[in-house]
Amino acid sequence: MTVPAQRVRRRPSASGRVLPVLLVVALLAPVGFLFAQTHRLTGDDRDLAVRERLGVEYLRALGPVTEALVDAQSAAVAGQPASRDALDRAVQNAAGVDLRIGDELRSHERWAGLRAKLEALPERTLADPEAAFTAYGEVTDLLLALHRKVRESSGLVRDPQQDSFFLQDSIGLDLPTAMVAAGRLADLTALGAARPMSERARTQGELAELRVGALASATDLVAGLRQAVDSSESTDLGPNVLTPLDTYQRAVEALAAFSGPSAGSRTGLADPGQVAAARLNAQSAAKQLQPVILDQLDALLAERIDSYDRDRLLAAGAAAASVLLVLILAGVLIAAYRGAQRRAAEARRDDDADSGTRPEPQAWAPRTTEPGSPAQDHRPLQPAGSGRDGGSERWGPFDAAR
After folding, report:
1. Which residues contact 195 (CB under 8 A, 6 or more apart)?
2. Is the pLDDT score of 377 beyond 70?
3. How many beta carbons lie within 10 A of that of residue 335, not counting itself?
């Protein structure tokens, strides 16, 4: 009798259990790395753009201070009474901005020094115009230094885009420098007309230096803004900037024409009245151009921040979708693994049930007879159908012989 062999119970191998886990980790690791890299890079760029917007806000507050200070200097040098209301209002506004965002831009120290100098300026006209020119010159130097500090600490000087870089360079460096230099040029022209002939050579040298500085800054401003317009993808920058820029350029050209040495003048210097009028015209054009540049720069930075937010949102969505797909895959693998375990358990139960109902196999042994019993084993086998009832006639002689 053949006994069926029992089924061998197979247990899942270690590699079969670990492979799904390794597959899930291998899919999640690069996705997590790419998401972390994207989040970090866009986060750094976004933080820079946010600080740049703070710098734009600070520069916007310094604009009225620059205008009021240049006007106050011209009035003091000319010996005219001038109201400090405009300057005081501008200083109060700038002080509020510095109090709010000065920690982020690290501008408290420089603003405190500038404000102390502004408050130390005499409210009444000085008797000596030369002393007034020197006193205001020190304050305007501190003001220009604060412009540079704000650009550096806010990151405007490191702006990565070409159009916004030229805009910040124009509004934070060229425009305030050109305004201060134009004011000094007009004031020194008025002072030079009253100086003695012995100082005429020194006066001409100082005027030539101021004239070159004022015109160079104005020229850099015009060139920088045109480059910003040419390199920008914004459709609003050109139409908004070019019109006030053309007005400012014509005003600067007039200042350059009137501030040059006059051949017909008795002193050899330019007419102070014409230079003062040209300076006022240039400052008025700069006053119209300044908010336009600030608005366009702030709009570009705000749009850049929005693009970074969109990129981070897309990266987060892609990472979430990848994680969801990996979780689905993990669920499929886990379900397959559990199904294999369930089938293995059912097979074990079937094996146990079969072993409990099957009879135990017995070893074969020859048949034995007891002593005294007839040796029936030596009796010849009778074919089927033979016996006393049937086939007696056939076996009769054999029985008679016995």
Report:
1. 203
2. no
3. 10
User: How far is it, in rounded angstroms, from Cα 27 to Cα 396?
Assistant: 96
What are the Cα distances from residue 364, in Å, to 223, 258, 357, 359, 367? 116, 137, 21, 15, 10
CB proximity list for 161: less than 8 A, separation 6 or greater: 300, 304
CB under 8 Å to 265, separation ≥6 — which residues?
A: 271
Per the structure block, which two tokens stand in for 67?
């205008």
Give CA torsion, residues 170, 171, 176, 181, to 10 deg: 20
Phi, psi of 6 (to 5 degrees): -75, 150
Q: Among 100, 112, 58, 276, which Cα is nearest to 183's?
A: 276
Check: CB of residue 185 under 8 Å from CB of residue 275: yes
DSSP string, 227-286: HHHHH---TTHHHHHHHHHHHHHHHHHHHHHHSSPPTT-SSSS--HHHHHHHHHHHHHHH
Q: Would you state the structure tokens that stand for residue 381, as one six-digit string?
A: 């086998």
> What is the Cα–Cα distance from 294 to 171, expressed in whole angstroms?
7
92 three-class SS: helix
pLDDT tens digits along 54-100: 999 999 999 999 999 999 999 988 888 767 889 999 999 999 999 99
**pLDDT higher than threshold 50 for residue 117:** yes
**What rounded mean pLDDT belongs to the chain?**
81
Token pair listed for 305: 């921040």
Q: What angle do CA 352, 356, 357 make, to 5 degrees?
A: 125
Backbone angles phi, psi at 113, to 5 degrees: -65, -40
Amino acid, single-letter form, for residue 157: V
Burial label, 84 (beta-carbon count in 10 A; 0-12, 13-18, 19+): middle
Is pTM beyond 0.90 here?
A: no
Question: Furthest-apart CA pair in the chain: how many Å?
Answer: 185
pLDDT at 388 (0 to 100): 47
